[in-house]
Specification:
Blueprint lengths: L1 E5 L5 H10 L3 E6 L5 H6 L3 E4 L5 H5 L7 E4 L8 H19 L6 E7 L9 E3 L10 H20 L3 E6 L1 E3 L5 H7 L12 E2 L1 E3 H14 L5 E4 L5 E2 H12 L9 H8 L5 E3 L2 H5 L10 H11 L4
Parallel strand pairs: 1-2, 1-4, 2-3, 4-5, 5-7, 6-13, 7-11, 8-10
Antiparallel strand pairs: 9-12
Helix pairs in contact: 1-7, 4-5
Bound molecules: NADP nicotinamide-adenine-dinucleotide phosphate.
Length: 293
């Protein structure tokens, strides 16, 4: 297959490397040419374009069989989300209109689930998040699902949980720096996926994903923040972090969700088998990589 990965970063680069290893021809798109050598070393042909600038997409050569959109707004607020995810997706749809690919994977987020009651959420659960940035992700999904239903555009949506892996994992890194704080009573639930499993899930979606379908990409174990820190504390023989103060909790509370993301559809419909079924295996691997034990 000729594959293009739009946003060839933390997830896109190892995805491209794995697809190239499997014999596909892979193009990796970023806004700047700075990391081109890194892409080439992974067997990926680097190209530059910016999804917020449609003329730069039009200048990309060739047609593609598989397209993966793994562009990130690199945090940012609502205006950046709107430009990169919603308008960026609109531009990608326009660009691909003349030569639609066989498969198009869009990386969305489990933040589209706004539930705050610890509910189990599968792909049929309501997506009515309180935060504006998450609402923009919902609108982006809707744009793609409309394109799929009205004109057969081969969009498949993966809702990724919190991505961790080599060099990534916000709470883990805070814990290592002794800067972590337990929020509230520690009962807020975390949903995660190891980067390598997200790469595997994207490949499974490229191979088996159904047009217009949505798949949650989270691992097998939703875990409370308290249990996550307990596991790290035991594993690394360190004390539990202190509880956050009232002011810190109040500042954090707005927009926080609390839900357990269900991954059954990924495992059955996409036939995906996890390398790191829970954070325990994934962080054990990262702890070993860092030589912390
Ligand atoms: N982090 C999480 O926990 C999480 C959770 C759920 C979903 N996701 C989603 O997962 C996807 C992959 O995330 P990631 O961690 O791999 O992101 P990342 O490391 O920040 O990589 C994003 C890539 O996109 C490129 N990029 C950014 N803006 C662009 C633009 N306007 N046009 C073209 N390329 C652009 C960046 O390169 P340049 O800066 O050189 O352009 C970079 O290579 C994203 O869609 C993200 O929203 C992430």
């Amino acid at each position: 297959m000729r594959v293009v990965i739009i946003g060839c970063g933390y997830v896109g680069l190892p995805l491209g490397a794995e697809l190239a290893r499997r014999g596909h021809t892979v193009v990796g798109v970023r806004r700047s040419a700075e990391g081109d050598d890194e892409l080439r070393a992974a067997g990926i042909t680097p190209m530059t374009a910016d999804v917020t600038q449609p003329e730069t997409l039009a200048a990309l050569p060739g047609r593609f069989d598989w397209v993966v959109n793994a562009v990130s707004s690199t945090k940012g607020g609502a205006p950046e989300y709107r430009a990169v995810y919603l308008e960026g997706t609109r531009h990608l749809l326009d660009w691909l209109a003349a030569h639609p690919p066989q498969q198009y994977i869009h990386l969305s987020s489990t933040s589209v689930y706004g539930q705050t009651d610890g509910a189990l959420v599968d792909e049929t659960a309501a997506t009515a998040p309180a935060g504006e940035t998450s609402q923009i992700l919902v609108e982006t999904e809707q744009l793609l699902r409309t394109a799929a239903s009205e004109r057969g555009f081969p969009a498949v949506i993966l809702r990724a949980a919190g991505i961790y892996g080599p060099g990534r994992g916000h709470l883990f890194q805070q814990f290592l720096r002794d800067e972590a704080r337990i929020a509230g009573d520690g009962s807020r639930v975390l949903n995660m996926i190891h980067r390598d499993d997200l790469v595997g899930a994207i490949i499974a979606a490229l191979e088996h994903g159904q047009r217009g379908e949505i798949y949650n990409a989270a691992d097998d174990e939703s875990v409370s923040q308290m249990d996550f820190f307990r596991w790290l504390a035991t594993k690394l023989s360190k004390p539990l972090p202190p509880f956050a103060g009232e002011a810190e909790n109040a500042a954090r509370k707005r927009g926080l969700t609390n839900k357990r993301v269900v991954n059954g559809k990924l495992k059955t419909a996409l036939r995906y088998a996890f390398t790191y079924p829970t954070f325990r295996e994934g962080y054990a691997s990262e702890i070993a990589r860092l030589g912390l034990l």
